[in-house]
Specification:
102 residues, mainly alpha, 4 helices, elongated
Length: 102
């Protein structure tokens, strides 16, 4: 005697596929993604922190009535933003070449 296993109706196959995929892959949390991205391109977070620090200190100096220091910090902020963008573009280029090699 041969026992036939019934397959799910075609309209419900996506549910089985979804269950199979959820068992195979663990979802990546935001913290895990941030760690992975930082390992891939460590200069972007450094540039972001430098930008935020220069902006914060520049605004604080402006509020304290120190326009010369505030102006210096705003120029440093622009330089840090430029560094961040350049690091981002270089990281994209490197990751694109790594994908092309694989």
């Amino acid at each position: 005697m041969v026992v036939e296993i019934e397959s799910p109706p075609p309209e419900l196959e996506w549910i089985k596929l979804s269950d199979d995929l959820s068992k195979m892959a663990k979802p990546e949390t935001m913290l895990d993604k941030m760690k992975r991205k930082t390992k891939e391109n460590p200069f972007v977070p450094i540039g972001c922190v430098a930008t935020a620090a220069a902006l914060s200190y520049g605004l604080w100096a402006f509020r304290q009535g120190r326009p010369k220091m505030s102006q210096r910090m705003m120029r440093l902020r622009v330089a840090a933003q430029g560094f961040t963008i350049i690091a981002f573009v270089i990281g994209l280029g490197l990751s694109a070449t790594n994908v092309a090699k694989s």
